[in-house]
Amino acid sequence: MSDMHILIVEDEENLAALMQDYLHRENYRVTLLHTGSVVEGYLKKNHVDVVLLDLMLPEKNGVDICRDVRKFSDVPIIMTTAKVEEIDRVLGLEIGANDYVCKPYSPRELVARVKVQLRGLAVKENQSRHLVLQANQLIAQTTTGQIELTGVEFNLLNKLYSQPARVFSRDQLMDAVYSDGRIVSDRTIDSHVKKIRKKLKSLDDHDFVQAVYGCGYKYVEKP
What is the structure's pLDDT at 166? Predict the structure, then answer.
């Protein structure tokens, strides 16, 4: 399952379940909410990568939700609605929505639009990061140079890199590195981390990968 988390806010439960099914096929993690009043609180407590937000919701409508969410978050928002008038599309975008899809829509189209927003996040994130990972070459690079990583090292570093400042346990890192479910010891992960840190030190003195005593490891971006 991907680390990418999609929040669907849709009061038509059958439609929400269909959207969830298509996103699950792409290995995204999905949460469903069916009323508007709980969205803001949920986003303040949970990390979400993209929000699919219906315009007409019980308790609080999508326009008001989007406007209020923009006061504290820049999470990509795709608004979905049965209203097709151009004024509604303009309003939806002016209050902070990133995209707008009219019902009835193809679930595949919606998935494609989610992917566009996720690609935009990846580009934005890489532009603001000191260290950049290139999966097709298994390298990590900065403006001062690059290092080559083994497949295991790259997967481990990429797991940490995917969510800066989040602490991953050794078990979580094992699952990311060894997808075949093999049994390895904590020392194996520690050994890989030690090698990664040594390679990264050749690029920069900053400690990109830091140990959290008794918990695991985290990736820390350079200020």
Answer: 86
